[in-house]
Hints:
Elements: H1 20-33, E1 55-60, H2 66-74, E2 78-83, H3 87-100, E3 105-108, H4 112-118, E4 124-130, H5 148-157, E5 158-168, H6 171-183, E6 187-189, H7 195-198, H8 208-215, E7 221-227
Parallel strand pairs: 1-2, 1-4, 2-3, 4-5
Antiparallel strand pairs: 5-7, 6-7
Amino acid sequence: MTERYEGSFFGRRKGKALSPTRIQRVENAMPELGLDLSVSTPESALNLFDAPVSSVCLEVGFGAGGHLLHRARENPDIGYIGVEPFVGSMAKVVTTVLAEGLTNIRLYDDDAIKVLDWLPEGSIDLAYQLYPDPWPKKRHWKRRFINEKNLDRYARVLKSGCEFRFASDIDTYVDWTLKRCRKHENFEWTAETASDWTQPWKNWPGTRYEAKAVRENRVPRYLTFLRV
């Protein structure tokens, strides 16, 4: 049976109310920092950034933004597209981007499938999905972002030979993702030894959610799949 779910893949969008100043800051910045999906798909994702970039990475669901910002700082010649519908997280990242003058980040504050459908084919050099909502109740599993249709979307935008990286501390979601990615004709799991999926990627900054998981004795897993 083909998995098809086109509803929202995220839960609540708002938590603690933002101050009027932060709201105004985000509203003023998003016309420049945000992706405008109402315009035609660009010929190249490289053209989305003010600064010249040599490649483009995508992070779906950047949470508090620690990983996204870390990668953007350490690789100023790489463009980063970050997607996050949670208002507080977006405000935090926008504030940091403005304060540090980062020119290699573009943001989107709605469902990631819209970005994946809008981006040019074969335009992304690396994609991350780190600690996505696991929707732990079985009746909600259809809302997990990793499904056949969304893997089709990732496969369309990723360049051949490039990686899709997934991290989670929820065993059922790790197993879920492994099963679906290994079944998909466009993805190949790269692990050869246990350390390939128990150790994080190079220059890994960690995330706030990951630190909480470790404190609660949940074990993070890091899966790498090659776009073939």
